[in-house]
Amino acid sequence: MTHAPYRVAYVIGLAACLLVPALPAAEWNMTRQRETAPGSGRFHRVDEVGNWDPRSTAIIVCDMWDSHHGLNAARRVAELAPRIDAVLTAARELGVTIIHAPSGCMDFYADHPARQRAKAVPKAAKLPAQINQWCSRIPVEERAVYPIDQSDGGEDDDPQEHLQWAAQLKAQGRNPARPWQRQIATIAIDEARDYISDQGDEIWSILRQRGIRQVVLCGVHTNMCVLGRPFGLRQMVRNHMPVVLIRDLTDTMYNPRRPPRVSHFSGTDLIIDYIERYICPTISSTAFLPESRPFRFRHDRRPHIAVVMAEDEYHTRETLTRFARRWLQRDYRVSLIYADVEDRNQIPGLTRVRDVDLLILSARRRVLPREQLAWFRDYLGSGKPLIAIRTASHAFHLRKGDPPAGHLQWPTFDREILGGNYHDHYPNSIRATVELEPAARTHPLLTGIEQTAFPAGGSLYKTSPLHPGTFLLARGRIQGEAPEPIAWTFVRADGGRTFYAALGHVKDFEQPAFRRLLLNAVRWSLGQSPAEKPIAATPLAKRNGTP
Questions:
Q1: Which of 23, 243, 353, 436 meets the CB 3.0–4.6 Å disulfide criterion with 236?
Q2: In 323-469, which ranges are E strands?
Q3: CATH code for the domain defined by 304-525
Q4: Nearest by Cα to 215 from 206, 202, 228, 223
Q5: Looking at the predicted structure, is the pLDDT value of residue 21 above 90?
């Protein structure tokens, strides 16, 4: 079950498995992110198959308190708790050690058998240095840029609701700043088997006594306690304990009014990206509940957009990345997917993307392994929308020669999926003018575009005649030649909608009209009304030194 070179076996706790015969080790898919090239700031999200032994595995439940100073935080904990409880129930039956860590609540559990059990564990002979301290950073993070501003504490409450919530907590006899008293009751604690502790040395001693070789973290909040507690992700990594985060059983303290000003749930995505890149792998709760789907908060209604970038000529791996981070990540769940820089016919991580609502494609003359091309065919065959730019008209078609063994091409992609007819282009030295089609001025895709004409950044593609089912939005014109279709929509045979623009040069992304056209295309593809806010006239800037 490996797909070299990006899906490799990651064997954890082998020594422990050898010591304890009987049941075979289980498998789970762990997700990591690896930089596409050193210093690029772009990452492949890839799966690794992990073998793990339940009897040498511990789950630590971090700070799933019964209340919180943030009302929305408390609401999300309450929503998350039943799924965590279901995971713990399944894991417990497999022989996994469960440690409940509601920090600051040990007095409540003073007489609880699970607390007494934790206290009775002898201290480990060799405790790691600073095991009882908060861990704010580990060495690998020195080269990382932290993705969100949490300096305000991360509360995302409505101000009026927050005041009412604080008053309610005070009326209950709780400290509004620290109202937690115990772990939320909807997460069951097994008196006969579980442990309760919030101390780093106690938890480390439990791990050693139980022969634990793999730690799993879930709970809240990812960007604070899950990362930094004495039993958190950083401490486990620093002390060479293999650890994974259950990425769908966590939440962040992030206020969307702070940079990068994305939705709360996109803020959580950014933190999980950070963890997968610099701290440790993640898994889904489906590792323990294989018949279920990953957990999703009920207010997380963001459509999922996959942006696939597999061309070198126009550097859309940079321009589309900046566009997605600036204009899409605020309101959508975005997966940025890049071609392998060493093997042009590989797109790592593509086939792991599930439940995509919209595909944005920029690709040029790639022939793909059967499984990867099947992903595109299956997605489009389901009738879902496509936005394609520039060289996507010849995305999966070699100019000459045959594909390598095991690889396939799709020579009819332009005609079948885009409704186009790309057959050449005019010289690169001649810049065309993009002219909006007068009959299309009321189309939602042209909303907010004030210019009736603007310069194209690259050569003019020869795309006429278009196929039936297209609706022309704009033409490209150069002196002395007939105009060519340059942007249109197309209704595919599967009923899905395609938007295509023969634009995508670096200079095109400097045009507010083109950026607005792309944003309109996203919203149109997803059945949403055009955005009211205008696109800034200034080019997209690099952020934090990355594209």
A1: 243
A2: 333-338, 358-363, 368-369, 386-389, 407-408, 424-425, 433-436, 453-455, 461-462
A3: 3.40.50.880
A4: 206
A5: no
How far apart CA 253 and CA 204 sit, in angstroms, is: 26
pLDDT, residue 533, reads 66
Count the neighbouring beta carbons within 10 Å of the beta carbon of residue 241.
19
Cα–Cα dist 468/491, whole Å: 9
Spatial CA neighbour of 528 closest among 326, 319, 302: 302
What pLDDT is attached to residue 536? 57
Contact 348, 318 (CB under 8 A): no
CATH topology of domain 9-287: Rossmann fold (3.40.50)
> Average of pLDDT values for 241-249?
98
Q: If you search the block for the tokens 């992110």, which residue do you land on?
A: 33
What is the percent of the chain with per-residue pLDDT over 70, rounded to a whole number?
93
For the chain, the structural domain boundaries read: 9-287, 304-525
DSSP bridge pairs for 183: 65
Residue with tokens 């497999």: 94
Q: What does pLDDT average to over the chain?
A: 92
Q: How far, in Å, CA of 246 to CA of 88, rounded?
A: 12
* Least trusted range by pLDDT, from 208-217, 250-259, 397-406, 495-504: 397-406
State how far the Cα of 531 lies from the Cα of 307, in Å rounded to an integer. Answer: 20
- Around 183, how many Cα atoms within 13 Å sit in the side-chain half-sphere? 30
pLDDT of 410 reads 97
Q: How many CB atoms lie within 10 A of CB 310?
A: 26
DSSP state of 223: I
* Structural tokens at position 176: 């509004």
**Cα–Cα dist 61/226, whole Å:** 9
Name the residue with higher pLDDT: 27 or 344. Answer: 344
- Output the pLDDT for position 11: 34
Q: What phi-psi label fits residue 39: left (phi over 0), alpha (psi between -120 and 50 degrees) or beta? A: left
pLDDT tier for residue 16 given thresholds of 50, 70 and 90: very low
Residues 467-479 have a mean pLDDT of 96
Work out whether the CA dihedral 225, 226, 228, 229 comes out positive or negative. positive
84 has a pLDDT exceeding 60: yes
How many alpha carbons lie under 13 Å from residue 396 in its C-beta half-sphere?
26
CA distance 212 to 91: 14
Q: How far apart are CA 141 and CA 240, in angstroms?
A: 16
pLDDT at 25: 66
Task: State the Cα–Cα distance between residues 298 and 308, nearest whole angstrom.
Answer: 27
Kindly tell me the burial class for residue 450, based on how many C-beta atoms sit within 10 Å of its own C-beta (0-12, 13-18, 19 or more): exposed
Same fold, 9-287 and 304-525: yes
pLDDT at 448 over 60: yes
Please list, in sequence order, all residues whose beta carbon lies within 8 angstroms of the beta carbon of residue 143, skipping any fewer than 6 positions away.
Answer: none
Q: Average pLDDT of 343-351? A: 93
pLDDT band at residue 50 using 50, 70 and 90 as cut-offs: confident
